[in-house]
Amino acid sequence: MTKCKLEYIWLDGYQPTQSLRSKTKIVKDFSGKVEDAPMWCFDGSSTEQAPGGSSDCLLKPVFCTVDPDRKGTGFLVMCEVLNADGTPHRTNGRATIMEDDDDFWFGFEQEYTIWDPETNRPIGFPTDGYPAPQGPYYCSVGSGKAVGREIVEEHLEICLEAGLNVEGINAEVMMGQWEFQIFSKGAKDAGDQIWVARYILERTAEKYGMSINLHCKPVKGDWNGSGMHANFSNNTLRTCGSKETYEQICQAFEPRIKEHIDVYGADNDQRLTGLHETQSIDKFSYGVSDRGASIRIPIGTVENGWKGWLEDRRPASNADPYMVASAIIATVKTVPVPAGV
Hints:
The protein has helices spanning about 150-160, 185-205, 235-240, 245-255, 255-260, 300-305, 320-330, and strands at about 5-10, 20-30, 40-45, 55-65, 75-80, 105-115, 120, 165-170, 175-185, 210-215, 230-235, 285-290, 295, 310. By secondary structure, it is α+β, with helices and mostly antiparallel strands. The chain folds into two domains: about 5-90, Glutamine synthetase, N-terminal domain (Ubiquitin-like (UB roll), Roll), CATH 3.10.20.70; about 105-330, Creatine Kinase, Chain A, domain 2, CATH 3.30.590.10. Strands 6, 7, 8, 9, 10, 11, 12, 13 and 14 form a nine-stranded mixed beta sheet that branches. Strands 2-1-5-4-3 form a five-stranded mixed beta sheet, covered by helices on one side. Helix 2 runs antiparallel to helix 7 (about 320-330). It is globular, with a radius of gyration of 20 Å. About 45% of the residues are buried. GO terms for molecular function: ATP binding; glutamine synthetase activity.
């Protein structure tokens, strides 16, 4: 008999930005399969998800992988939050995704800032004043430019050991700002993997006495904000071979600016200013290879005969990937599928 440690992870009810919560369940001889992880519950009155007089909320396991930090007997279990009657809780963004056939593929580019609690500034920033202006930090190497690499490398290694589909990492434009990318064939799975990777990142930073700041504009002034660019495709985008179809899909986003911005992360107006590789929050644009547009059409898509994907550059680093995917899917589905696709 082997006792296994299952770390149940869920999103709380804090607004405007939800936080990660987790607790450990000990089970015997766990198979490692998500369908064998039992339902569990928690006190929703302590997470802004239920009143004290009726506080039980349910945890429904939806994604499970090994936990490399708990060698051999540990598992990370991402969960949906349900009401006591089994219906999706109002904070359950995953349940809003209206897609079960995995037609939509998502690649999220998760930017974040490693934060020093002692200085209340990004790692590498002086206690007073600022470092040299941004420019040398993006994809950098060397002391004084790539700061916090030990945390980033450890996070990457743990994610890979856990089987998450991380496709890359890089230092970002502001000192102390980094990015990882995760891809999945399926909207729900992509969201699951981003949330588990965020959990691993927070836990890794703990070891170094650091925290992770997902605010989309952690440093005011002439510094890049942090985003979570959403690369997406469905069968139509992957196979249509039609510039006109791509333009129809892009144009479908324009009348739905509010619906998207509402779920693209808190305080995004501080980031989407029209500066620092962004479009203004109240405007919409699209263009080939245009990083200042709301939606970028990658040059690779064009060179492949208009077969590929699109990138919505508006989601903030603190956005819920479930809600982002849900909004994108709903908009794309308003466009009729071209004949022959």
